[in-house]
Amino acid sequence: MAIRFTSYEWYKQALADKATGRVSSSATFFAGLAAGVTEAVAVVTPMEVVKIRLQGQYHSMSDPMDVPKYRNAAHALFTVVREEGFGAIYRGVTLTALRQGTNQAANFTAYTELKQLLQKRQPEYANKELPSYQTSVIGLISGAMGPLTNAPIDTIKTRLQKTPAEPGESAISRVVNIARVMFKQEGFPALYKGITPRIMRVAPGQAVTFTVYEYLKTKLEESRLSFTGGQYEE
């Protein structure tokens, strides 16, 4: 979250109109896209590889001799790097960057547009932040936009990261093969498997995140501390 919002604010300021300081809808979209790619490369991809390996291993809890391959996150990271090389923790980075980029582009754009709509309909909030409950509602809605727009990317990425690569097999060929087999054996709906629990996880989290984000941003601007370029207009 820290990397996401810090990079988003930085990109947004860089894309703002130099004369007026205003941030257009397209600038918001591309700032969100760039922020998503930044967090994907910086931290999301390695952590997702580790998470998926831990979740994908099978062992019996009732059999003390059945020792899992990965004991914890740190051990999984060390084991993957030792056995498959450093590049293994960045397996699927392109798909992850695409997923995170489209996710945050949709997320921040939807949030900003909904926020501006509510401010226009409520003149008393034209020049100040919305009530927290309204911020939570539009955060909930915008949080659902990302998973709905990139579910196929996320499904293919998860299957790609779940298993080690075969010798001589390129990342592109693996992606194509995974998508082809899924579509052939399971049909188009397979690309949206898990969409409901993903929305149920992501949307409430974004509601809380945006509410806290707006509160802290207001406090920082009031304190005249400038971490991301000071006050700005959306």
Overall description:
The chain has about 230 residues and is mostly helical. The chain has helices spanning about 1-15, 25-55, 75-85, 95-120, 130-160, 170-185, 195-220. Helix 1 runs antiparallel to helix 2 (about 25-55), helix 2 (about 25-55) packs across helix 3 (about 75-85) and helix 4 (about 95-120) packs antiparallel against helix 5 (about 130-160). It starts with a helix and ends in a 12-residue tail after the last helix.
Helical amount among residues, as a percent range? 55-70%
- What is the strand content? under 5%
Number of helices: 7
Coarse shape: elongated
| Overall radius of gyration | 21 Å
Structural class assignment = mainly alpha
- Give the low-pLDDT segments: 228-234
| N-to-C series of helices and strands | HHHHHHH
What is the mean predicted local confidence, pLDDT? 86
Distance between the termini: 20 Å
Total E-strand runs: 0
The biggest beta sheet is recorded as: none
